[in-house]
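Fold sample X.
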Amino acid sequence: MVFMGFAEANAQKKNNTDSVRVTLRFNNNVNNNLPLDSVYVILDRWDLSGAGMIKKMYQPKDNVIVLDNVPRGKYYIDVFCLGIYQQTFSEVSWVYNKRKNRNTFNFRMKESEVYSDSTVRIPPQRIDWMKLTVLNNRTYK
């Protein structure tokens, strides 16, 4: 039997315009571009119609996280970096198809130091015992 190529017709795939790809980039230049351990990402709808649309722990590859199939709209974007570089980022932003920066959000990491006993310095504290409120007679009238 000859099927003349009509056995399986591939329909053109329609792009899902209701969802977009969101990219989170972490600029870790101040720490020699060392990789992040793990990142907890929360995307909440701004209009309170979908609390926690995305709540997930991610392992960044080359300090980049790609979120696929994020519905269009305005979001509260909360990012919590865990591990050595413990920082938090919050942003309110629109996510839609024809955005100029293609839904890429850049977060600049701050310099972090590894804890060492020799680098800790506790400044001296001077307490004037005569200026305590308990000793002040005017407070008990």
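Fold sample Y, listed below.
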Amino acid sequence: MMIGVGVEFALGVTCLALFPFRRPDQWLPPQSKVVYSAHAALGGVLAIAAVAIVVTMASNQRFVRLGAQAGLVGLLLGAAGGMLCVWHPWRVTGMGLMFVGSLIAFFGYLIPLAEPQPETPAPEGPARAEAPPVEW
């Protein structure tokens, strides 16, 4: 999912570079429809996958659940920002929400990698291991 969020972010930056900022209010601008459609389609697929991950990881470990939930929240913030970008007065706010949402999703999916590994139990035997005597 982190790779998908990274690709989605890169497509968003490409859209930002290709679309004029003062374009009229519309869902699909005539400039670079392919890039915009790929950006929107990948975002939709990532959102569906994020919901599926949250549902399937509901009974999993705490760090995994937290990462899945943070990723979903980040993707939903990004989607809300994308919808706000349609109307010119809200365009900068929408871009900010998409940026923050991408960061939250990326680092959210990074959280499970930081989970500490369970400690292995101490071996049975004496409380303290002694070194063998050394002869001089």
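Sample Y note: DSSP finds four helices and no strands in the chain.
Also: The helical segments are 2-18, 33-56, 62-84, 91-110.
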